[in-house]
Amino acid sequence: AFDILGVIGAVVMPHNLYLHTASVMSRPVVRNPEVIRKAAFWTAVEPVAPILVSFTINMAVVVIAATEVYGKSGSDNVGLTDFADYLNIPGGATLFATALLASGQSSAVTTTYSGQ
Predict the structure, then answer these.
(1) Residue 110 · residue 16 · CB < 8 Å
(2) How far apart are CA 73 and CA 25, in angstroms?
(3) pLDDT digit string, tens, across residues 69-112
(4) What is the mean pLDDT of residues 35-46?
(5) Residue 110 half-sphere exposure toward CB, CA atoms < 13 A
(6) Burial of 16 (0-12, 13-18, 19+ CB in 10 A)
(7) What is the DSSP string of the chain?
(8) What's the pLDDT at 115?
(9) Contacts of 12 (CB under 8 A, 6+ apart)
(10) What residue ranges are annotated as transmembrane (predicted)?
C-alpha cells in the first residue's frame, strides 16, 4: 500500500500542477462561452498525457525492482541502501543514473519556474 502511495506522490506533484495552472492563466482567451468551454476542456486534458507517462515509468521501476527482489534470499530486509545491489543488469547503473539526473533536473526547473 505504501508503494502505491509513493508512486502516486511521485506522479502528482503539487508544484507541477501549480506551474501548469500558471502557464494556462497566461494564455489570452477570448471571452466567448464556446471558446471558454473549449479552453477549459483542453486545460483538463493537457496534464493527462505527462501524468500517464510518468505513472507508466514509475510502475515499470516498481515492477522491475519487485521481480529482481522477490524470491531471493534476504529479500525481506531489502532497504534503500541495498537497491544498488539489484542494478547489476547490463546498463542498469547507467540507466538509473540517467533517471536520477533527469528527475533532479526536471524538479529543479519546474520548482524554479513555479516559484517565479
Answers:
(1) yes
(2) 54
(3) 777 776 667 676 766 666 777 777 787 788 888 878 877 777 77
(4) 82
(5) 15
(6) buried
(7) -HHHHHHHHHHS-HHHHHHHHHHHHTS---S-HHHHHHHHHHHHHTTHHHHHHHHHHHHHHHHHHHHHHTTSTTGGG--GGGGGGG--STTHHHHHHHHHHHHHHHHHHHHHHHH-
(8) 66
(9) 51
(10) none
Measured at the CA of 113, the angle between CA 109 and CA 116, to 5 degrees, comes to 145
Residue 73, C-alpha cell as written in the block:
534470499
Write down the mean pLDDT value for the chain.
74
* Phi and psi angles of residue 12, each rounded to the nearest 5 degrees, phi first: -95, 95
Question: Amino acid identity, residue 62?
Answer: V
Asked whether the beta carbons of 46 and 20 are under 8 A apart, the reply is yes
